[in-house]
Amino acid sequence: AHLDRIAAVDGDLNAFLHVSEDAALEVARDVDERRAAGEQLHALAGVPIAVKDVVVTKGTPTTAASKILEGWVPPYDATLVEKLRAARLPILGKTNMDEFAMGSSTENSAFGPTRNPWDRERIPGGSGGGSAAAVGAYEAPLAIGTDTGGSIRQPASVTGTVGVKPTYGSVSRYGLIAMASSLDQAGPVTRTVEDAALLHELIAGHDARDSTSLPEAVPAFGEAARRKDVKGLRVGVVEELEGDGFAPEVRARFEESLAALERAGAEIVRVSCLNFEYALGAYYLIMPSEASSNLAKFDGMRYGLRVVPEDHPTAESVMKASRGAGFGDEVKRRILLGTYALSAGYYDAYYGSAQKVRTLVQNDFAGAFEQVDVLASPTSPTVAFRLGEKTDDPLAMYMNDIATIPANLAGVPGLSLPSGLAEDGLPAGIQFLAPARADERLYRVGGALE
Ligand code: GLN
């Protein structure tokens, strides 16, 4: 049924870059046979899933939506993909995204934008717009996204879906095409909080192949989502993330969600995180710095596209021509920004200062979590904007991430779920943040609101 749905709507939506019809059907049939034979399988066995194209899949093309990786077929699976296969979830295909996960609208894909299923003239968020649109359009019941500065939560918010960025280090980054290694984290995109909890449980866990992987066992998130009990839970509203920059109806839906939590027995308090104001600026130095280093490996030699200038085919000219032709404008912009911020003479002023701000943001979280159990804010300042509306204004595009970025700088987990319909009848989202390793609180509060 999901493959039929993809065939019917994806020509318009462009949520998928690759559909693995035969492989998905084979897994689905195998699950049927095993169930018929009485075999005990994972709760999600047979439930189809879409995977963001920044996650490597053995034998299936993986491009990160970049021309520079076009035609590359990975020889191995990401750890999280191994887990999906072991639990027998049919992988429907790979989803569209901003090139190398850089963007907030999926318009930076080298293979055309994804459209928002609620209004096809609007963006589905980014960078994981393909995963969110696929779930929102009923092409897939589950999807995997990655979140470096909001790319799971913001697309979820503008497509009326649920998205979770787990605690940094709790889901293995092995096999994720790295954007900014100290910020990247993979997580679930789903239609319900409980689905997200079950998928999160499946993909989390220690992995010796990721040196930042946390050693702890994974708690039972599904249980937390089903409990629907927030009595006595202290919810802190971040004063810096609910002001004038947020659209009136987005704020109204946010306030209504808080009121619902209050009726269910939660205590709502205002908290201040003074340094969140500087988080966006720090992110747009740290992220490009790490990306400029991570993307150095795309040199026209090892993977994908290779452009050989006929007149002067040296190693250097091949690298230059391949990178020039293979990377899109936003990727080049960030490589330049990062290279500049890391260069001798500028390092302390830019990268060094940004790292200090990162510590201040972490201190703000630590202070806030002494007063409350979870923090809350609208996920995104507005509902989905129109395709093309912000493509000429990188700063306006970057402002979309104002509420999602602090969590990545501090490594704390975040969950976005729908708060209702706002401007133009389009979905808005509410985000909850919890201390590192306390992801189950997100499911407790999210489950109660659903
Ligand atoms: N929109 C943000 C950016 O462009 C976040 C991207 C992400 O989380 N991958 O950097």
UniProtKB/TrEMBL annotation:
Catalytic machinery residues: K52, S127, S151
Record's keyword annotation contains Protease: no
Top EC category: ligase
UniProt keyword annotations, A-Z: ATP-binding, Ligase, Nucleotide-binding, Protein biosynthesis
Gene3D superfamilies: Amidase signature (AS) domain (3.90.1300.10)
EC number: 6.3.5.7
Regions crossing the membrane: none
InterPro entries per the UniProt record, alphabetical: Amidase, Amidase_CS, Amidase_dom, AS_sf, GatA
PROSITE patterns recorded: AMIDASES
Enzymatic reactions: L-glutamyl-tRNA(Gln) + L-glutamine + ATP + H2O = L-glutaminyl-tRNA(Gln) + L-glutamate + ADP + phosphate + H(+)
Record family assignment: Belongs to the amidase family. GatA subfamily.
HAMAP family: GatA (MF_00120)
Subunit structure: Heterotrimer of A, B and C subunits.
Entry protein name: Glutamyl-tRNA(Gln) amidotransferase subunit A
Lineage, opening ranks: Bacteria, Bacillati, Actinomycetota, Actinomycetes, Micrococcales
